[in-house]
Amino acid sequence: MKENATPSTSRRHEKYDRLIAAAKKLQPIATAVAHPCDETSLKGALEAGEAGLIKPILVGPVKKIEGVAKQFSLNLGGVDIVDVPHSHAAAEKAVELVRTGKADLLMKGSLHTDEVLAEVVKRETGLRTGRRISHVFVMDVPGHAQTLFITDAAVNIAPDLEAKRDIIQNAIDLFAGLGLGTPKVAILSAVETVTPTIPSTIEAAALCKMADRGQITGAILDGPLALDNAISLEAVKIKKIDSPVAGRANVLVVPDLEAGNMLAKSLSFLAGADAAGIVLGARVPVILTSRADSVRSRMASCAVAVLYADARRRATVLPAA
User: Fold this and answer.
1) pTM of the predicted model, to two decimals?
2) CA-based, 20 to 30 A from 43: which of 51, 234, 283, 296?
3) Domain 10-128+282-321 falls under CATH 3.40.50.10950
4) In terms of Cα–Cα distance, which of 103, 110, 165 is closest to 134?
5) The CATH number of 134-281 is which of 3.40.718.10, 3.40.30.10, 3.30.530.20, 3.40.50.720?
6) CA-CA distance, 312 to 127, in Å (whole number)?
7) pLDDT tens column, 166-185
8) Residues of the chain whose pLDDT is less than 70?
């Protein structure tokens, strides 16, 4: 293939296809969908339901949901709808459905991310755990052999060292939960050497030492690494970097939300990548989709959440005596 050639259509989405196919082998998981009141969010939930990935429970103003369904010829037959007056009530009720065991996943509809997560993190009525919540983009990049995880690009704006520990552990747990093996985690910065004038390089070194001391488990970490020598073996060879992660990273940990958001959107809009989004660290995975997401990205987001929820459920089942 020429360097600038476009990957064939059959190969462009093969990584997502594998995730979706694996999720379809499981039983659909009851999913509370908060305020699916536009075409994109309602269609995404219904199509994931029709594909057998989830069993959607639509939470929002029933007349508005029915109006959107009628306008865009979407079939609501057999789908449960919980009627609430507005988006804030929808977020609150959807979280309640999960907390009380009536749903096992939470999915964002056509309301702002902050509105959903504010309910998730409430101390008394939310879905908090001891872990900091964080977001992971699961990227299917055409022409790149591996699925790329990018974190955190949507929740934690300027995380400190303690928050980054949780961000990394969340991503590691997801990677393993999807059956992808042991991840190679690159802590990204602008350069690959520890440089006192660039704080992210010092944090990267500290995080790697935390992994050495067992404060982060289940992965191989290295950093600081610049993006090129995190994912390109050619760049690693040129710069003579000796690392089991460099050039082979499949989890990219960014310095802050701005860097992560720019990286993920650059891959989406310049490289034609698809980006499935999921929030981790709560009692259940939260499916976080964007209005700009393709149908395949929405399906992949649901597939990732379903696979991870199933892996967590199996991990908590005690072996027979």
Assistant:
1) 0.91
2) 283
3) yes
4) 165
5) 3.40.718.10
6) 16
7) 999 999 999 999 999 999 99
8) 1-13, 317-321
149: enclosing H helix or E strand:
strand 148-151
What residue spans in the chain does CATH classification 3.40.50.10950 cover? 10-128+282-321
Tokens coding 27? 């039983």
- What's at 276, amino acid-wise? A
Which pLDDT belongs to residue 12? Answer: 60
User: Is 246 in a helix, a strand, or coil?
Assistant: coil
pLDDT tens column, 291-311:
777 777 888 999 999 999 999
All CATH 3.40.718.10 domain ranges of the chain, comma separated, are 134-281
For 222, which DSSP code?
A: E
What is residue 191's three-state secondary structure? coil
Locate tokens 């992808």: which residue? Answer: 180
Read off the tokens for 94. Answer: 């959807």
